[in-house]
Write a structure and sequence with these properties.
Elements (H helix, E strand, L loop, with lengths): L2 H16 L3 H12 L9 H13 L4 E5 L5 H8 L6 E6 L2 H13 L6 E5 L2 H11 L4 E6 L6 H10 L1 E10 L15 H14 L4 E10 L2 E10 L2
Parallel strand pairs: 1-2, 1-4, 2-3, 4-5
Antiparallel strand pairs: 5-7, 6-7
Helix pairs in contact: 2-5, 3-4, 6-7, 7-8
């Protein structure tokens, strides 16, 4: 097994089941041109988010970590006409690139962008009564994943689905001797998740064009 093979399979699947998309392609190109890190979800991962949001009938979606808005486009497309994605981004440059990408995709009215550190904007959402959200996607700095997840649950309802990306870290999540702050962050998240009786969850390892990683899927209980 190799990175070359994983990338080839992603290309095969994307070609058959995702296909070309001018708005998504333009969002990626604009993000690269602006110098944003190339860490957006892959096309097949984006479609997975779209399908999961559709499966739960999401009308309100919370995204923690906008980057260039690629995943935001997928999530907004899963909504009914009266739905809304609230997406949080700490970096002003990323925020502006995403704003342009969402506008180009014709989705600006379905997306409420918030600029600022998520641990500061999440309490604002709670105070505003912005929830409950039906679907939450967390893809931000890994050091604070446990705190982001706690806020996601607080802003949810029974049946809300929560997806947390990049939680395997090339297998380093299983290394008890790890010292990398991002690995320590996802280990702390998993340990908190295991003790959280409010949700039922699992983590799935993945391989693909972005390498070896994985995601957590959790559902909020009654």
């Amino acid at each position: 097994m190799s990175q070359k093979l994983w990338t080839a399979v992603d290309s095969y699947v994307d070609g058959l089941l995702v296909g070309p998309d001018s708005a998504l392609d333009a969002a990626l190109a604009a993000s690269v041109a602006a110098g944003l890190p190339e860490i957006a979800v892959t096309p097949s991962q984006g479609k997975l988010l779209f399908l999961l949001a559709r499966m739960v009938g999401a009308r309100r979606i919370l995204e923690i970590g906008t980057l260039g808005g690629y995943s935001s486009i997928w999530l907004a497309r899963a909504l009914p006409a009266e739905g809304m994605v609230v997406t949080l981004e700490a970096d002003a440059k990323h925020f502006e690139v995403a704003r342009e990408n969402l506008g180009r995709a014709g989705l600006a009215k379905l997306v409420d962008q918030r600029l600022g550190l998520a641990l500061e904007t999440l309490p604002d959402l709670a105070e505003e009564g912005a929830g409950p959200f039906d679907f939450v996607f967390i893809d931000a700095d890994k050091e604070n994943t446990a705190e982001y997840f706690e806020w996601a649950v607080r802003l949810s309802r029974p049946g809300t689905a929560i997806v947390v990306d990049n939680v395997v870290r090339e297998g380093e999540v299983a290394d008890a001797a790890a010292t990398d702050p991002q690995v320590l962050g996802v280990r702390r998240f998993h340990e908190a998740l295991a003790a959280d009786a409010r949700v039922s969850a699992t983590t799935i390892q993945t391989v693909g064009s972005k390498g070896y990683d994985g995601f957590t899927l959790a559902v909020v209980g009654d």
